[in-house]
Amino acid sequence: MGDQHELRGIERPRIDEWLAAHVGGAEPPFDFRLIAAGGSNLSYRVQDARGGVFVLRRPPVKSGLATAHDMQREWRILRALGEHPTGVPVPRVLASCEDESVTGARFYVMEFVDGLILRDAACAAVLDVGAARTAMQSLVATQVAFHTLDPAAIGLADLGRPGGYVQRQLARWMKQVQAAAVRDLPLLDRLHAALCADVPPETARPGLAHGDYRFDNTVLGADYRICAVLDWELCTIGDPVADFFWSLLYWAQAGDELCVLPDPPTRLAQFPHRAEVEAHYAALTGFDLSRRDFYVAFGWWKQACIVEGVYARLLKGAGGGMRGAVPEKAAALVERYLARAAALVL
Questions:
Q1: Pairing of strands 93-97, 107-111
Q2: What is the mean pLDDT of residues 49-73?
Q3: Which of 230, 271, 227, 226 has the alpha carbon at shortest distance from 248?
Q4: Is the pTM of the predicted complex or chain greater than 0.90?
Q5: Quick one: 121-345 is in which CATH superfamily?
Q6: I need a surface site. Which of 133, 146, 150, 251 has the fewest CB within 10 A?
Q7: DSSP per position, 60-102
Q8: Long-range contacts of range 80-84, CB-CB < 8 Å, 24 or more positions apart?
Q9: Exposure of 259 by Cβ count < 10 A (0-12 exposed, 13-18 middle, 19+ buried)?
């Protein structure tokens, strides 16, 4: 069995009984192994008595933003993408539970897609130059697929409002910072005002904005192409250009002094530089990417807001995925992100 200390959010034997009754062919007893945790949704690799494997997804035990942990929303997106010829590979959904009494929250079950997840540089070391370029091109092409599809055509017209994506993001994250209110950040306020006053018009038709698209939220197959896109918890209808530049913020390269990820796989020498990633996206979409500085500045500002929330929770003794983090380092990182944004738009 999985480590019982890591089985938070899994209540036995009720969940075993539910899985046996609702996941076709699943046979107890079940072995649960935590795949991903932290402030995000919890993912468990579940193996049954016959060796069958699937994944259970549920919200964190102590949830933050309710909309970021809506299991039925994520289930619905996966099902819509899986049931239509979208060109977006996703795990097949197997069962959904809305009864919170089973294990303390709504959850769903999907197939386990085996493959390579580029979580850090060590995971990416197996790729040579050709494989790294193949992976990049597949990552971009898959994003283009969900950016250019019509949400209404797959039953997701009501997933979000069609316009004003960046404006809503600016309002949402400013509200989160103000709700925490652990210190004064005049540069964050100045940047918010400047960004709000200069939001570019949306030139691309609204599509699915994943909200957290990068290598470690995808699975690569043996051919180093994307065979599954994961973690749709933040997905909405939004501006594809803004969503692309948010993803590009995670594409670190050699020589970068400031990175969003602690050990980005793309910083290895075999990966193409960001400029090639951007050029590939532009070639596939024809979208206007000329307002790069605004979108990149917005990305650094949003990252500052996110980490400021981490800082606020650390001051309150939060654990989970932030256990062991040093509050002062989080606070300093916020200031570095803000400085990077300011250099672009102030």
A1: antiparallel
A2: 78
A3: 271
A4: yes
A5: Aminoglycoside phosphotransferase (APH), C-terminal lobe (3.90.1200.10)
A6: 150
A7: -SS-S-GGGG-HHHHHHHHHHHHHTT-S---PPEEEEE--TTT
A8: 80/154, 80/155, 80/156, 81/146, 81/154, 83/154, 84/153, 84/154
A9: middle
